[in-house]
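Session log. Operator J.P. requested a structure for one protein chain; no other inputs attached. Running the standard single-chain path with token output.
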Amino acid sequence: MARRKAPEDLSVEELRRLLLEKRRGVRRERLEHFRRTGRVVADAPADELVSTPVVDTPEESGNPPQVRTSKRRRVMDGILLGIEILAVVGLVGVLLSGLGMLHDLNQEVASALNPATPSPTPLVMAVVLPSGHTPPDAQGNTQPNDAEIPANLMPIMQSLANLPVPTPGAEQAIRIEIPAIKIDAPVVQGDGWEQLKKGVGQHIGSADPGQSGNVVLSAHDDVYGELFRNLDKLQPGDQVILYSQQRQYVYIVDRTEIVEPTAVEVMASTGAPTVTLISCYPYLVDKQRIVVFARLQN
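Structure written below.
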């Protein structure tokens, strides 16, 4: 008869086999007890129940446990994943917004350091040529001649009556001199009724002296100093000298025309530096306009 080995003499495999046999015996006894008490109905013979192999639990086999993921856990994981995705999207949005704000700030700083050259005030095209008025009576009284304004254009004329006069700049005309007809007069901004009482008026939005474009100047011929009374005596080649706060500009007369009060195209901007002088015509009749054109001397 073989000598019974001591536990310390057994191999791991022999110990494991003894442990399984002992567990089978305990299980057999438990099933027999449940059958006797009626708590278990056997569908198979007891030998089959007993011979059913016992599968090691993860703890007994030494393998890591397999955790079953419940439905609730899966739902929570999905919610957390969604929150993480939204957080990442929000972070990307914040970063993009920050980059846009930084770009705008850089542009504002660049604009402040390098201010753009201000564009000139657009020419305010009149309905009729400036300086129109009724012929003065024996006492020299006169008034604006509204009769020469077409009825359908009267609302436009009224809307232009109260345009603000721009602040004078260093390049704007302040004085005009025409030696051939002995004119030396101040130039004011605006050619409305009140402005032309003070001197020669520059049309709002027209070019400044020396610039490419048309300097449009007007004055009365038979009231308020009769500044432009002798425009009809100018000849091609005569000088028109304009002064700004910084320098003077000499223009040379090209031609003279007599036009209707509605011929506002003579005030249009030009590609070259020019000056246009406008006044009522004929003297003490004032039904038309005399227009003198001059170009900047080389």
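Operator note: Residues 71-113 form the longest helix (43 residues).
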